[in-house]
Specification:
homodimer; Arc Repressor Mutant, subunit A; two-stranded antiparallel sheet; 6 helices; 2 strands; elongated; DNA-binding
DNA sequence: TTATAAAAAGACATAGAGGTCTTTTTATAT
DNA sequence: ATATAAAAAGACCTCTATGTCTTTTTATAA
């Protein structure tokens, strides 16, 4: 469903959040190692997330990635939107250019149901809630 | 969610089925025109579907694409499987290589719910049921 | 039995996602 | 001030999805 880039983005943000709770600011090399993603490419993805203001960064010695306002929840939707683009949840599942309630494709209603359940999920789940699950040992990032 | 190739495949099969009901065997050029897809590429996609035995074809004058056993329902799942590959519905939504009930990623259960509702839908819907919807004017292929 | 109309096949082209390498900038510690 | 450690930036590379062009094969009609 989601591209690899988006998966790296979510895993990276979760890792950063967990490390921030320990008062650490991880760099992209450490992040890539811990979330099992390609190092340089992860750096690029984090650059994009920083530009989209989903995370902050500091250059120089002692620098790294961190959340300016850790209490401000970041939904998975925000991450998906930033990486995959705004139309991700609005395209016709049948591939028609014109498809709406008045002129529906034969999948219209059933696809809408699936799409909405995905949409609901990514709006409920946040980087923080995933990180908490990992901290409570109810889930894993595979390296933590 | 689905790749363009899969969308073309489904639309093409629906169109073929509708034409078969009129005792016609459309060729890939006609199909491409009617489902609004690139002509040559649609030919390739149909070759693959024929190899996967989801549709039959005849060369030569009067040839074209058709269903050998039109009463044998083809679920969208079969088409997706043939084009996107067997793992499409089993990959971890978080991107982890190892992810199962014993060692779940933090999205495991919620993603499973979404994935299953998609899976259920594509197993219920068939080329035939979509075609019937179009014939009953309850939906459109945009050119029919 | 030959011309024709169709799919099949194969070689090639393009765009975008995913990924790497090198250089530049910047903050900090010494 | 200077060395160092970090992200940022930019130029590239690779692979896959998507798409095109040309040639070959095959069934049918004339």
């Amino acid at each position: 469903m989601l591209g690899k880039t988006t998966e790296y983005a979510i895993r990276a943000l979760v890792y950063i959040y967990i490390q921030n709770m320990e008062r650490e600011r991880p760099g992209f090399k450490e992040i890539a190692k811990m979330i099992d993603s390609p190092e340089q490419f992860t750096g690029k993805v984090l650059q994009n997330l920083a530009r989209a203001e989903l995370v902050s960064s500091m250059k120089g010695r002692g620098g790294g990635f961190f959340f300016n306002e850790p209490t401000n929840p970041i939904t998975l939707f925000k991450v998906i939107e930033a990486i995959e683009g705004k139309e991700y949840f609005s395209k016709c599942g049948f591939g028609l250019k014109r498809c709406d309630a008045n002129n529906p494709c034969p999948l219209h209603d059933d696809y809408a149901h699936v799409r909405d359940s995905f949409f609901k999920m990514v709006n409920e789940k946040t980087i923080q809630s995933l990180a908490n699950k990992i901290n409570k040992r109810e889930a894993t990032l595979n390296r933590l």
